[in-house]
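#lab-general

N.A. 3:47 PM
ok so I finally got the sequence cleaned up, no stray characters, all 235 residues accounted for. can someone with queue access submit it? mine expired

B.Y. 3:52 PM
send it over

N.A. 3:53 PM
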Amino acid sequence: MRIRYLSCILFIIYLLSSCSLEHTITGTYVPRQRGKYPKRIPTTFRITFDADNHFTYLYRAGFKKEYSEGTWLFITKDTLLLNSQLQDIHSIPLIIERGEHRDNDSIVFLFNNSLKDTSVINWTIEVNDVPYEFNQDSLVLQMGDSCNFFVRGTIPLEVDSLIVPYLLNTKLESCSYSIGRSKGTRIVISFPHYITWDVVYYLPITERIRVKNKKLIIDEGIIAKKRIVLYKKSD
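B.Y. 4:20 PM
back already:
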């Protein structure tokens, strides 16, 4: 009985300490050192942990930029696990809304493209292994009873070479979708809210980070400058 009681007490203490850690970890973390020549070569390295277990990551140095966001979780009392919301830049989820239209012999694709204003990206939709230009708002095809499709965005090399910071991703692809009984169907396609222009700098992350004395230790013993401390916002 005493052992069971002691186990319960220890479990409660563990829960309280975990809650305390999750409360104190929230905030924005930046490097203790920002580089040797910060005025000439601006460097940004920032991770923000929100109270709802959401994180954002931003890295910028010279012509290089990386961005990511996702969820964070304590897997031990001193170890954080970061998982990006998007794990594969070639498997971007789409929001698909299906309806009907009057022509029973065709299928209509409507593209509510949140990246449409970014004219440097050329869009295509591949339907039943046949690519079609998809830079316009809609596409009407004569189809059979079913179809498989996905959306692809590419940035030409001649355009990529002119963009600074240099792009991390010049080819974007969505997940594949299958529509049965496609005749007389209207398909509305859009991206989730977190797909913005920063997707071209998106870096999928699945990483464990140590927490020690209110500091995050990244690549401990390899690059000392990657130790970052809590940044306290001014009131």
